[in-house]
């Protein structure tokens, strides 16, 4: 339990470091940082795709046994060719290569076997090498199969909606997540990050959300952020979002109840995925009597928020899209000025 808590704290620290540098401009060049290409070969193979993994394992396998066949070719008389202890100096490289594979993989010596001390020393080196790379092969293949794809256990809504609260009339930014696994996800947490700005002034802000942690996540999770006066989104117009190339990133972490492995997924919404004046419909519908069933087809279905239309019918309030489709240069300049004032604060 202590190890799991320590790994979770370390993972959160790494996650915060990643988000803190994610706002760096793409044209930024770092110098005096050596490339650590072969520092962690196992992690590189696990993160790579299947064709690269299979090609790398096969090439490594042929390289190792070709090396030992090359070493044995210097003394071909060290290998016996039949059961009577006779040797032959006409062994080809292919036969020595086959002998190396048979002796290492535990198939048996067959008609080729070690005949001298030199051949037994080489055989010992082969077995020690096999103790290293065969478990690594098994570990890579197992982790590739056991590592779940994010799209296999989670489904995000294509859009995020903004509607008004019926009681407080406060704008609420909402999006949904659905668990597609048969089992529950334990200790699920969600973070909502808002990124805006241009060039080196691009910043990332953590938006507080309601119910950011769930002990058992087995159905649909609605993520909501109230745009209160102290929210970073308060008093921000649609022009500010468009000029600043705003993006909303959702970071999901949890533990698989079946394998107890950590699950991690991120999903990003750009400005074109924000629906104003819309609210998500309930995913549960009556099934007769007092029972209800969850309809997965209603995950991303939205309807018009009537309260939003009544409040912002003829109002140019914050977080309202402009009535015109094309934003002229004057509006863009106004948005850039607004963005600089936000960054100065």
Structure in words:
This protein has 345 residues and is of the alpha+beta class. The chain contains nine helices and 16 strands. α3 packs across α4 and α3 packs antiparallel against α5. The radius of gyration is 31 Å and the shape is elongated. The protein starts with a helix and ends with a helix. 18% of the residues are buried. The model is unreliable at 17-33, 314-318 and 320-345 (pLDDT under 50).
Determine the number of helices (DSSP H or I, runs of at least 4 residues): 9
Strand count, sense and barrel status of the largest sheet are: 5 strands, mixed
Q: Which residues form runs of ≥5 with pLDDT under 50?
A: 17-33, 314-318, 320-345
- What global shape is seen? elongated
Distance between the termini: 43 Å
Would you tell me the overall average pLDDT? 76
Cα gyration radius (Å)? 31 Å
Task: Tell me the fraction of residues in β-strands, as a range.
Answer: 15-25%
Structural class: alpha+beta
Give me the strand/helix succession. HHHEHEHHEEEEEEEHEEEEEEEHH
What is the total tally of β strands?
16
* Helical fraction: 25-40%
């Amino acid at each position: 339990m202590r190890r799991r808590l320590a790994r979770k704290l370390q993972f959160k620290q790494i996650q915060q470091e990643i988000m803190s540098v994610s706002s760096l401009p793409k044209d930024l060049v770092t110098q005096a940082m050596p490339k650590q290409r072969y520092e962690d070969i196992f992690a590189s193979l696990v993160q790579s795709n299947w064709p690269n993994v299979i090609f790398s394992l096969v090439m490594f396998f042929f390289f190792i046994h070709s090396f030992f066949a090359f070493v044995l070719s210097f003394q071909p008389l060290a290998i016996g060719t039949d059961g009577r202890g006779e040797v032959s100096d006409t062994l080809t490289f292919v036969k020595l290569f086959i002998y190396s594979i048979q002796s290492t993989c535990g198939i048996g010596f067959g008609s080729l076997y070690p005949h001298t001390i030199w051949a037994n020393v080489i055989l010992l080196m082969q077995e020690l090498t096999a103790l290293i790379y065969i478990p690594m092969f098994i570990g890579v293949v197992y982790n590739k199969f056991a590592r779940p794809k994010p799209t296999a256990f989670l489904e995000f809504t294509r859009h995020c909606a903004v509607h008004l609260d019926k009681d407080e009339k406060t704008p609420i930014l909402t999006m949904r997540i659905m668990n597609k696994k048969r089992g529950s996800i334990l200790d699920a947490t969600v973070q909502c990050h808002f990124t805006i700005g241009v060039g080196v002034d691009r910043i990332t802000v953590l938006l507080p959300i309601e119910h950011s942690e769930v002990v058992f996540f087995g159905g649909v999770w609605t993520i909501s952020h109230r745009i209160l006066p102290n929210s970073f989104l308060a008093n921000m117009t649609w022009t500010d979002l468009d000029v600043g190339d705003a993006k909303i990133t959702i970071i999901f972490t949890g533990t698989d109840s079946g394998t107890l492995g950590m699950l991690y997924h991120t999903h990003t919404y750009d400005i074109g995925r924000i629906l104003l004046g819309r609210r998500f419909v309930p995913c549960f519908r009556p099934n007769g009597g007092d029972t209800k069933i969850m309809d997965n087809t209603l995950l991303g279905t939205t309807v018009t928020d009537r309260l939003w239309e009544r409040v912002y019918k003829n109002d140019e309030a914050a977080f309202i899209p402009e009535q015109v489709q094309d934003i002229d240069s004057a509006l863009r300049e106004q948005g850039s000025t607004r963005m600089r004032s936000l960054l100065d604060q």
